[in-house]
Automatic annotation (TrEMBL):
It is found in: Endomembrane system. It comes from Pluvianellus socialis. The chain crosses the membrane at residues 42-67, 88-111. GO terms for cellular component: endomembrane system; membrane. It catalyses: 13-octadecanoyloxy-octadecanoate + H2O = 13-hydroxy-octadecanoate + octadecanoate + H(+); 9-(9Z-octadecenoyloxy)-octadecanoate + H2O = 9-hydroxy-octadecanoate + (9Z)-octadecenoate + H(+); 9-hexadecanoyloxy-octadecanoate + H2O = 9-hydroxy-octadecanoate + hexadecanoate + H(+); 13-(9Z-hexadecenoyloxy)-octadecanoate + H2O = 13-hydroxy-octadecanoate + (9Z)-hexadecenoate + H(+). This is AIG1 protein. Belongs to the AIG1 family. It comes from the Eukaryota. InterPro entries: ADTRP_AIG1.
Amino acid sequence: MALVPCQVLRAAILLSYCSILCNYKAIDMPAHQTYGGSWKFLTFIDLVIQAVFFGICVLTDLSSLLTKGNDSQEQERQLKKLISLRDWVMAVLAFPVGVFVVTMFWSIYIYDRELVYPKLLDNFIPAWLNHGMVST
């Protein structure tokens, strides 16, 4: 019942996403007080989708570790449903939105930084947090 490096990596990614989410919410930005708050930014929505996806991955890994060696048909059926949910979230939400956010953000950033990440935001969001939210 040893943990596979893939499972440890998924748990580490989930923890990093949660730490970025908590750090982002702790920042007092003017945009958080306007209509929609941080939910109006596709980058933030993508970060939440990725955190939910990796949470489902960790839950799937834990379920498969706990049911390994069990011959219960009901547990196998529930595990298959969880795996199909994980695959659906990856194929429909996590991958397409993630790729779109990264490519569009950095393309527009290279073209004209002020359109997507004005220099004013450097006072509120550290460079590492911006990189963590967009690139990962």
